[in-house]
Here is the input.
Amino acid sequence: MINEQEFIARRQRLLGQCAPNSVCIVPAARLVTRSRDTEYTFRQDSDFWYLTGFNEPDTWLLLSNHDRHQQSFSAMVCQPKDASQEIWQGRRLGAQAAIARFDLDEAYDLSELPEVLMEWLFGHTHVYFAQGQYPHADAMVHEALKTLREAPKEDCAPPSMHDLRPILHEMRLFKSASEVAVMKAAAKISAAAHKRAMTTAQPGVYEYQLEAELHHEFAMAGARSPAYATIVGSGENACVLHYTENSKVMEAGELVLIDAGAEYMGYAADITRTFPVSGKFTKPQKDIYNLVLRAQQNALNFITPGVTLKDATLRVVEVITEGLVELGILTGSVSENLENETWRAYFMHGLGHFIGLDVHDVGNYRIDGEDRPLQPGMVITVEPGIYISPQASVDEAYRGIGVRIEDDVVITATGIDILTSDVPKTVEEIEALKQ
Ligand code: GLY
Ligand code: MN
Ligand code: MN
Here is the structure.
């Protein structure tokens, strides 16, 4: 649980990194139409959530460190209390209650937004705002700036505009102890869902039915939604990296690749496991599976503060290339294959990514053109895979096999903590589930 003090401290830390006389403008997400007058389930903007923990659409957070204020001054613009709207669309907090709930200095109704933006921009030197994120927000901010610039009084419009995201996203990249605790909970829920899928999978079941098993487990453990579209790919579908149709019947003898994670209190888990539909690996499946597992273990042993994701990728690529040569899937020497990067035909995505409020989380992977060393507080995925196209010119036994193994790890002062280790991973552990 992230407490109110932590949200307040984040807002202060953000303002502290802005130039003097700055105003930050952070709009919430809006509802998105699904069809005609129905909308997709609301999902808050991650930056807005990070600074407020407030789940209403059409809200704006305003922060100022203008020297007419002490250190920081904060406000929200909220959807108005409206009895008839609330009967149809749900309860709203309203401006008055927002002041106490978020420890703000001021709050306003959404109808006042044009004037509020002008008042808040007035007399500041810098604006921090994520231009291009939301067209409606761009239009509102630009209109307010235009009006101020056209006003007869000089120097009332801020002359400089900055992107808020570099500061905010660098903050989000380093998870606090309470964020790590929430991510552990997301991982635990997701791990239980993967175990449920492993034990319930059987020939004749549709991929989307296995998806339903996962989502049921998420919800029953307190996580209403997945953090991204669940992938359940059986047989050759495992070779389609972002397969989300999930429409095929699973068959005996096939592997099924499940990439699924719950979103819990805004934070994502991202787990992939690949296992046999009917419980037992065939020899070629086991060959590929154990190679991916070895590659992942190598990366997990290697990752520690100070190393880069790129260094870890190089190790994984070596292990995969050696293994593919041993299996005869690649021909020629290991060094030739490494030189020619032939592994790219079988391992075509990155080794991992930052994860947090977004499954592919924010944060720069490179700084000043250099790969960035991993540091304590960063949370990443480690997800090597091998995907052998059904058309590949290799021994027929290997064609159409796709395997990915993905875990989430937090970088600690001394190494890593694997958040998702509750899910069976070795061939023996997986096969034992179905005996
Ligand atoms: N689930 C998306 C990914 O693994 O990056
Ligand atoms: Mn991932
Ligand atoms: Mn994934």
